[in-house]
From TrEMBL:
Designated name of the protein: Dual specificity protein kinase FUZ7
Residue intervals of the Protein kinase domain: 8-322
Biased composition, class Acidic residues, residue ranges: 207-217
UniProt: ATP binding residues: 37
Species whose genome carries this gene: Wallemia ichthyophaga (strain EXF-994 / CBS 113033)
Residue range from the parent sequence: 573 to 908 of 908
Region (Disordered): 207-243
Comp. bias intervals (Polar residues): 222-234
Stated family: Belongs to the protein kinase superfamily. STE Ser/Thr protein kinase family. MAP kinase kinase subfamily.
Length: 336
């Protein structure tokens, strides 16, 4: 049976992000608690119906590492998606509340995410496209599952993609306008793994620097000839959806003022989104030194900048970190 909006009672607001808002609801006919995501779609109703059709593939996704899908329906200009409610919430909230994860939890998360990505790709040829801590969910059974993967091309096109905050898990090749592949998800996993190990976004204090001046103001101009854009002639078939990157990858001149307040002592400079994108493309990837060799090797593999050399999720399952995690019986529900 299809789910109808009038069968749902809202219990709580869970949060909101790029695409919409998420509420905790109860489906009264079945007495099932669910998470309902409401997404505003600006397109005409034929497009909305098309998205609804494309979402039906979710009814065929069944894995211990993927959120269950219960159904979707249209409501005015919105699409509502009902999915499994995960009662411990997302990893970003968990680390905000409990701090960085332990080494054992780190290994279990890597294992679960890789199994989820491998399932999606091997069985359904689905690339996730949005691996980040807020799309990795935990429940009190100790399960770790992925949500918010890109099943509907029309839906991806219809969500006006804006960078909320300044975190970006986007791979260097994506920033430069290349096609998404399953290896782009691997990059995002690498950034995610460092973030949950440190309890903060790995690029956050990149601009940490000493400066004598007060309130220095830099003008940063990016254009077609800047290092971000490979060439003006080969315009990447870039996403008409990639928010800030449109201007960058398509070579539109952009000017941005970056104000760094620099009191006498060492301060954390705030990186603008453009600085960050440029940094990801041009500099060495971040590394993880905290948890020893297996964790470090794993993250190094995820963050290989050359897509051709970067492993797939399936290949990463062979890594020592994962082999070690497989041997351990971790009761995640008691830890998190
Ligand atoms: P984002 O993923 O960018 O944070 P979303 O709109 O996808 O934005 O989700 C908002 C928040 O809702 C997430 O950060 C997460 O904490 C929570 N959430 C999303 N889906 C679920 C779910 N199935 N169960 C529990 N919490 C969820
Ligand atoms: Mg999400």
């Amino acid at each position: 049976k299809e789910i109808r909006g009038d069968e749902l009672k809202v219990l709580d607001e869970l949060g909101s992000g790029n695409g919409g808002t998420v509420s905790k609801v109860v489906h009264e006919p079945s007495n099932t608690t669910m998470a309902k995501k409401t997404i505003l779609i600006e397109s005409q109703s034929p497009i909305r119906r098309q998205i609804l059709r494309e979402l039906q593939i979710l009814h065929h996704c069944h894995s211990d590492y993927i959120i269950e899908f219960y159904g979707a329906y249209l409501e005015g200009p919105h699409i509502c998606m009902c999915m499994e409610y995960m009662d411990r919430g997302s990893l970003d909230r968990i680390i905000r509340k409990h701090g960085p994860v332990s080494y054992d939890v780190f290994g279990q998360i890597a294992l679960s995410v890789l199994r989820g990505l491998t399932y999606l790709y091997d069985v359904h040829r689905i690339i996730h496209r949005d691996v980040k801590p807020s799309n990795i969910l935990i429940n009190s059974k100790g399960q770790i599952k992925l949500c918010d993967f890109g099943v509907s091309g029309e839906l991806i096109n219809s969500i006006a993609d804006t960078f909320v905050g300044t975190s970006t898990y986007m791979s260097p090749e994506r920033i430069q306008g290349a096609q998404y592949t399953v290896k782009s998800d691997v990059w995002s996993l690498g950034i995610t793994m460092i973030e949950i190990a440190l309890g903060r976004f790995p690029f956050a204090d990149v601009e940490e620097e000493e400066s004598e001046e007060e309130g220095r103001e830099d003008d940063l101009t990016l254009n077609a000839n800047s290092t971000l854009s490979p060439s003006n002639a080969t315009r990447p078939r870039a996403s008409s959806r990639a928010g800030t990157t449109i201007g960058v990858t398509q070579g539109v001149a952009m000017k941005q003022s970056v104000k760094t307040h620099a009191p006498k002592k060492k301060t954390k400079g705030v990186m603008s989104i453009l600085d960050l994108l440029q940094f990801i493309v041009n500099e060495d990837p971040p590394r993880l030194t905290k948890f020893g060799k297996n964790a470090q090797d794993f993250v190094d593999k995820c963050l290989i900048k050359d897509v051709k050399l970067r492993p797939t999720p399936k290949q990463l399952l062979e890594q020592n970190l994962i082999q070690e995690a497989l041997k351990k019986e971790i009761k995640l529900n008691e830890i998190l």
